[in-house]
Write a structure and sequence with these properties.
There is one protein chain. This protein is an alpha+beta fold. The chain is built from seven helices and four strands. The protein binds inosine-5'-diphosphate (IDP) and magnesium ion.
Length: about 140
């Protein structure tokens, strides 16, 4: 069995609404170990770089505004099959399509303001984790 890592952000809407504790309760109950975690805020340059893959999409400007408007919780999580299992735990991008019990079903307001980020591959998990954390912040 492999032990993998994924990267998550509790987005500004989730932090504003006071859902940090409830969301981490679900993350812990689902068997993820916290490797790194902090409350931080992305600058416009940070958000543009983090979401550069979406730069041609019509929602890019709105996404950058949203992700920089307040603090986020950034974290690296470890578990077997972490990337896929975390995507299952958070649910579909649009909360209207997210399965019952998923974090987005419970806490997301819309396809844009969807409470939580989860990496989509092992490669991106490593890139995104290194974007937010120095090696000495990972345990
Ligand atoms: P994901 O977060 O489920 O991987 P992506 O397609 O990678 O979804 O999109 C990144 C983020 O961009 C989403 O989580 C959401 O915040 C935002 N987003 C995606 N699609 C839309 C849209 O159609 N309108 C507004 N925002 C969107
Ligand atoms: Mg994505």
């Amino acid at each position: 069995m492999r032990t993998d890592r994924t990267f998550t952000m509790l987005k500004p809407d989730a932090v504003e609404k006071g859902h940090i504790g409830a969301i981490f309760e679900k993350i812990n109950a689902s068997g993820f170990r916290i490797v790194a975690m902090k409350l931080t805020q992305m600058t416009t340059a940070d958000a543009k770089e983090f979401y550069a893959v979406h730069s041609e999409r019509p929602f890019y400007g709105e996404l950058v505004e949203y992700m920089t408007r307040g603090p986020i919780v950034a974290a690296i999580l470890e578990k077997e099959n972490a990337v896929e299992d975390f995507r299952t735990l958070i649910g579909a991008t649009n909360p209207a399509d997210a399965a019952d019990g998923t974090i987005r079903k419970l806490y997301a307001a819309s396809i844009g303001e969807n409470a939580v980020h989860g990496s989509d591959s092992d490669e991106n998990a490593a890139i995104e984790g290194a974007f937010h954390f120095a090696g000495r912040e990972m345990f």
